[in-house]
Every structure is written in C-alpha cells, then in structure tokens.
C-alpha cells in the first residue's frame, strides 16, 4: 500500500497565514474605514452645524433689526410728543392714529409712575405682574417683556422711558408698543430644509416668549429647556453646558431625541438681554445626504482607494450643492430673482477693487407711492412690476455694473459715472424701456414716478450702507425732474452740512423763542404818487445770542417743514399788535401793517381764532392789520382759499395775495378771489434791462385787473427809481423795496414813519 503525502500542517499553516493576513487586512481596512468614517461624520456634522448657525444668526439679525426699528419708532413718537406739546389723551390718540399705517404692533400704551398702563385712547390697560418689565419701567430703562397677559390677551410689550410727558394731568414715565406674539412669525419663518425646520424665541430661563406657527413645530410646553432636559440628549451634549453658554450670552448647538425623532437645536442671543432664538431642524433632514454618502463609503471599504475617491467626490458634490443652496438664499432675491443687497455689496466691491477701473457712482432708486400700488393691485402684481423693473435696468448695465434689491421697491445700482448728462440719459432710457414693456404686456398699468439718488464714489473705503444713506439724503434736497416721470439728485457734502445745520437750528429754536431771539422787523410800503410811508410788512429776524444774526432764508423753510412756523407766525402777530397798541396809545396814526400767514396755519380750519383773540386782547381796530397769503396757497385749493379770505374779513382783517406772478396763477383765477391787496412778486423787477416794455405791459395788465376788482396793488422788491416811475405811471398803489427802505427794527421804523429817517439795513423774509 502506497503512502499518502499529507500536507495538512502546511495547508493549515498557509490557511492560518491567509486567514491571519485577511483578518489583519480586515482589521486594518476596518480600522482605517472606521476612523475615516468617524472623522468624516464629525466633519459633516460640524459643517452642517455651521450652516445651521449661519441661518439662525440671520434670523436673529432680522429680529434684532425689527426690534431696533421699533425702538427708533417709539423714540420718534416721543420726540413728536415733546415738539407738538401733546398733553391730552385725545391728542395722543390722534398722533398714534396718524402713525398707525405700516405698524407691526397692535397699539401704543403709556405707563405712569405707579405702573398703571393706558391705551392710546386713555382707557386703562390691565397688565400682568411682570417684575422684570415693571422694574425696567420704574428704573427708566428701555425693555421688551416676555409674553404676558395684557387685557386678558397674550401680548409682548416693548417700552422706552419718557421724560416730561404728562397726559390729562398724569405724568407718564414710559411708552410701550404692544405686539401679538404671532407678529414675529414672518421674521421667524425659514425657507430652508423643505419647511421641516422651525424657530421660537425664549428667555434665558427657557420660558417661551414667541412660539412658532409652523406645521412642523414640536409641542415644547411652557419651558423649552425643561422639555429638552426630559428628552434623550446626544452623547457629547449636555443641557448644563447649554445653560452655561446661554448665561454667558454665547451661541451653540445641542442634539436630542424626542418621540423617536432626533433634532438639532441651534441657539443664538438676540437684542433683548434675556432673549434667545432657538432653531430646530430634524437630524434626518440635515444628515440625509451625508448618511447616504457614509453608507456608500462603508459598502466600498474593501476598495479603499476607489471608495476614498468616490467619497471625496461625493463630499465635494454635496458640500457644493449645499453651499449653492445657501448662496441662493443669501445672494438671489426672492422677488426679482436678481441680486440681494449682500450679493450686490460683494460684486460692487470687486468692481471698486479692480485696477484701472472707471469712476463709479452708487445710485439708490425707488418708486413713488409704491405702497399705494400694493394696496391697489396686490402684492403679486407689484412683485411682477419690481421684477420687470430690475430686469430692465440689469439688461442695460455694462460689465462691472450691478443692481441689487435692498427692500420693498428700493434698489441699489453701481454704475459708471461719466457726468450727470450721461446718467440722465441712462435713467430716461431705462424708464422708456420699462414703460414700453408695460404698454405691451400690462396696458392697465402706469409706471409710477421713479427717484434716483446718486452718490459719486471718490472714497472706496466708505462702507456701502453709508454710501446708500448719502444717496438717499440727496433726494431730500431739491431733486431735479426729467420729463415729469423721473426725479434725481446728486449728493454732495453740502447736503449733509445742511441737514446737520437743520438739526442744530431745531435744537435751538424753542429756547430762542423763550429768550426773545426772534425779533420783528418792519419794511415800509411807500404810497404812490406821494411817495410817503403808507404801510409796512412785518418780517422776522433771528438774533441769536451765540451766533448773531440768522437770516430767514436759513430757518423759515425749516420751520415750514417741522411746523414751528405756526408758533413763529403767532409770535410775530402778537408783536405787531403790541406795537400798534403802543402807537395808538401815544396818539399816533399807525399805517396798515401786513403779517405773513404760512400754509401750515391755513390748513387748520379754526386758525383765525388765535389771531382774533390776540387782536381783541390789544384792542386793535378793524382793517389795521392785513394777513398775507402766498400765491402757492391760492393754487392749492381756490375754493378753500375763498372761505379763508371771507373768514379773515369776518375777523376784522384785510387780506393780500403775496408773491403774485411767482407761480402759475392767472388773472382769470384772481377774479374769483375776494382779496383786498395784490402784491406783485419781485420777479417782475429783478432784471430791469431785459425787455422793459414787455415787463411794463404785463405789470400794467395786472394793475388794471386789480383796479377793476377794487384791489390795492403793491410792487415788491423794487430797487430802482425808473421802476418806481413806471409803477407810478401805470397806477400802482404802493412800492416796497430797497429803493426806499430795507427791513428795519421797530424803533427805526417809528423814526422813519413818525419822525426822522433811518438807514438800518436788513434782509426780507
């Protein structure tokens, strides 16, 4: 029998070696794959967490901005109460009602020193006993409350301190805007993660201030931190760490599982000192792509190189896609599909940083009365209009020029600056293209007036928001018109200087009135043909203790804008009445004196009551005072003007129409105006060498018409003797101008009218 060669030991040894080698290889590959898997998982989680934190930060910034805007609004209302001297709830309610359009809150309430709250109408408001809120009110601090019961309804109150405000005899220490918590819903909403994410606002202790109305929102109970603490936390996360971070006003992320669903919660502080924004996203949504990639990596771990290459490629692809999504949110405007303002900043900075670049200007543009269009045609139609407007401008931009939407109908454009005429042509061309598009596609629309504020960029270091602010400021100071449909203005430092000066004068005006710095000057009116003093006009001079003479052309337009002109008009009127009474008591025969009445005064139906009361107090005879109304008031509403003039006559005053001929008034219209005097504007006498025959003909027509209507005529701004001769020949009744006398203090006028003359100089209002 032969021998069988058994190689079992060798086979076994080889098998063992192979198994050992395979096992070792598996261990090596497994260890490498496991380490790689863990590292990759950690990286993806960190990146996803970063994206979540970025989104939460944006939402928090929106909330901060909303709250800051509302604080600013309350301060504006508070300043308005001081300026308008509002001391009754009835007037306060009217102020609140006038400001109500565009509110995001329910009402404005006032709080007295005893903690009692009142609605804008003066009705008592029942407040919860919110110690944090009431402590801040009593200590004179601005504060925003947690959700509390106000008049038995859940509300949030945002409060600022008040000083020297009294309503119906009760001192008020705070003003508060009252919100429904649901008013934050739009700010809290997120378009990311397929609508499966949601946000809420809590205080630092975890109590919910504003809940989310998202259908994906969890039931978080009364205290979010308690709910999270009762859930299953991720291994590396701790509720205590989260609380410590929040106590130090930090931001971060925590993972937990509740009802078998795992969530990420990102927390970030917002403006109020004890508020936090919490954003919740299901982990499955955040990790969907990365989990798929990690699974594929584990399946292909046997082919390490190929798996690694596939993993890297997929990681880059996923990261790029997620980044593109986030960039779309940050950089693509959801209304116009063009650039957001942030993307505009980035692109504009690239253009400004380029070498050998052209000169650029930043243009701020918006449509006039766009809110009215929104109400009339609806938001969707108006969004289409904005999209068309943006596309029209963008299609006409050169390389390196960009447009981005800031908000609503406000756009910013970076454009090459080759001078104003070239910009005007581009603006007009954009408007023509947009108008033609509407005619062809939306014939029922009329393109509204479009404004362009221009800031020429000579300093690249200036932040874009400041450039935008300066472009906006330009539109506040006399914009120029193009064809009645476009207005534009170019910013210069003079605009900013004027605004600063206006603020300075506003800060001075109240004290100046109290300290008697507003002095009345009189400019004589000479009667023709005798050429003797036959009347006067009362004018205002501001003799400042700190600055000396401030002339009317600097402060009168400002006072007409801010309403202080009403106080000034009454001050001048009372000084005139006091002067006339003094002359009468001394046995003198006062000439008729005219006083200016501003447009702001005429708008008040009973404005003459104050004039009549002052005149009665000084026992001024009828027709000794003449109230001057400007031609502009005539043009605004002739029917209302007729009523005003009749009231003036009934009150015992004469009435004159000032600045006649400076605007678009006609002789035909004057026939229906029952005024006593017509004052020819100085524009007729400004250039005596330019076609004097034509000027004489026009002036003679006006004088003849006035004579036919039994009106006196006064020629204003006359500076030359030959003009006086001409006016005397055509029958003008009075001349007022430097040819005879400048405006002068009352004492100098007395010497001129009742005694010796004076040469005191002044400027006319």
Automatic annotation (TrEMBL):
One of the Pfam families matching this protein, by short name: dCache_1
Ranges for domain EAL: 502-757
Membrane topology, record value: Multi-pass membrane protein
Source species: Eggerthella sinensis
GO molecular function, one term: cyclic-guanylate-specific phosphodiesterase activity
UniProt keyword terms in alphabetical order: Cell membrane, Membrane, Transmembrane, Transmembrane helix
Protein name as catalogued: GGDEF domain-containing protein
Phosphoprotein as UniProt keyword: no
SMART domains: EAL, GGDEF
A single GO cellular-component term on record: plasma membrane
GGDEF domain: residues covered: 358-493
Localization annotation: Cell membrane
TM regions (residue ranges): 292-317
CDD domains per record: EAL (cd01948), PDC2_MCP_like (cd12912)
Alphabetical list of InterPro entries matching this protein: Cyclic-di-GMP_PDE-like (IPR050706), dCache_1 (IPR033479), EAL_dom (IPR001633), EAL_sf (IPR035919), GGDEF_dom (IPR000160), Nucleotide_cyclase (IPR029787), Rev_trsase/Diguanyl_cyclase (IPR043128)
